[in-house]
Design goal:
With about 80 residues, the chain is α+β, with helices and mostly antiparallel strands. The protein has one domain: 3-Layer(aba) Sandwich (Glutaredoxin). It is built from 3 helices and 4 strands; from the N terminus they run E-H-E-H-E-E-H. Strands 2-1-3-4 form a 4-stranded mixed β-sheet. Helix 1 crosses helix 3. The radius of gyration is 11 Å and the shape is globular.
Length: about 80
Amino acid sequence: MKTFKVLGTGCRNCLTTAQLIESRAGKLGVAVRIEKITDMAAILGHGVMSTPGVVLDGQVVHVGSVPAVAQVEQWLRQ
């Protein structure tokens, strides 16, 4: 199971990012756990200065925008 953390304050792009990961995981049949992190101290603790940020299995993999579908699928296939 892959663990994703979506870092952000709950803005539309942050919600879209979480939904995108969840929908693509379902389509590909990959088990995921998605955690939404809204605490600014926790977000900054990951070194993320602009949101949304995506952390995959403890590593920051994306920052500052909604990731592309192809990028999300690549993460899920790793």
